[in-house]
Amino acid sequence: MSVRTLPSFDPRDPLGLDDLLTDEDLAVRDTVRRWATDRVLPHIADWYERGELPDIRELARELGSLGALGMQLTGYGCAGASAVQYGLACLELEAADSGIRSLVSVQGSLAMYAIHRFGSEEQKRQWLPGMAAGEIIGCFGLTEPDHGSDPAGMRTHAKRDGDDWVLTGRKMWITNGSVAGVAVVWAQTDDGIRGFVVPTDRPGFSAPEIRHKWSLRASVTSELVLDEVRLPADAVLPEVTGLRGPLSCLSHARYGIVWGSMGAARASFESALDYARTREQFGKPIGGFQLTQAKLADMAVELHKGILLAHHLGRRMDAGKLRPEQVSFGKLNNVREAIEICRTARTILGANGISLEYPVMRHATNLESVLTYEGTVEMHQLVLGKALTGLDAFR
Q1: Reported pTM
Q2: CA 152 from centroid of its chain's CA atoms
Q3: Assigned CATH class of 17-132
Q4: What are the tens digits of pLDDT across the range 303-328?
Q5: In the chain, which residue ranges form alpha helices assigned H by DSSP?
Q6: What is the pLDDT of residues 33-50, one digit of tens each?
Q7: Cα–Cα distance, 205 to 184 (Å, whole number)
Q8: Fold that domain 244-389 belongs to in CATH
Q9: Known catalytic residue: 239?
Q10: CATH code of domain 139-235
Q11: Ranges for the Acyl-CoA dehydrogenase/oxidase C-terminal domain (predicted)?
Q12: Active-site hit among 144, 302, 337, 374
């Protein structure tokens, strides 16, 4: 009887989760990882410290050439990748920085997805190929200064004026806003909430950038101001009315966060693991002390459980079985655990944990935004609570 030799234990993949991935999955992951390592990591600390993303247009074109923009969509220049492959890309991008993953998520899972799913054929042909190539940057206007978790109360409105629409209102915390060539904006109409494809060079449209952020600093965040922006009749997304439109887009984007948050957690965990092996106190590496090993073990368990959860949800999405409540399950768990991993990693690095020479504090502060955007903790708890009990506690 032959004795089977077990594979060696990999501290960076302790559960052997790579076995779940196809060769094509691995190729997508490794391509995005190489790009992020070469193009983002050498500069990200400086960009973050300066509070800007100076190469955003060039980065968008490079991401387009990789097929990372709208990669889960089909046709119109999009890659038609699987949900798992898109998730792996999100993980690798956020392992570099949440701002880079946000650029890709807003472009592909919000702006492009809205046009792809709810737009006319003319709208798709006009916008999607340029957006997939990164030649046109898009943004998604839903959140308002006074309406975040309750988008049904939005004040932005669109009125008919002959054959035209006239759009007035404000949107807040809009990623890519001031560099976008097109904005998908949701507004109240006499027929209910509708989506509009708004070229940003229209008179009355402006997007002042939001400054003084302590999170997502390497990301363009803006306010959208719509001052009687006149649009033709065919600017409206024809295939949806009501909150079903924007909420389905958000669910698609939240799926990317389930994966992406684990990228930030992985980067912080690996930084702490490497540090624990080399930092010496009391005559030996701190990784040799029981309390440090307990921290590393707990971090590894939550990190790889989160990746396994993301993979499971991805396979369900690919099979057409993923429910919005399950996406809420993933975002609630994975972002919450990612923040805890970053905080624990910071304690292992000690004072060095607050330095931009290491990625940990940058990821921790970024995740404070990820925790509340596209659905706060409380909203996802209530989504799950309603699904579990059948009782609506939102109001």
Answers
A1: 0.94
A2: 23
A3: mainly alpha
A4: 999 999 999 999 999 999 999 999 99
A5: 23-35, 44-50, 56-66, 83-96, 98-105, 113-118, 121-132, 244-278, 290-318, 324-349, 360-372, 377-389
A6: 999 999 999 999 999 999
A7: 13
A8: Butyryl-CoA Dehydrogenase, subunit A; domain 3 (1.20.140)
A9: no
A10: 2.40.110.10
A11: 242-388
A12: 374
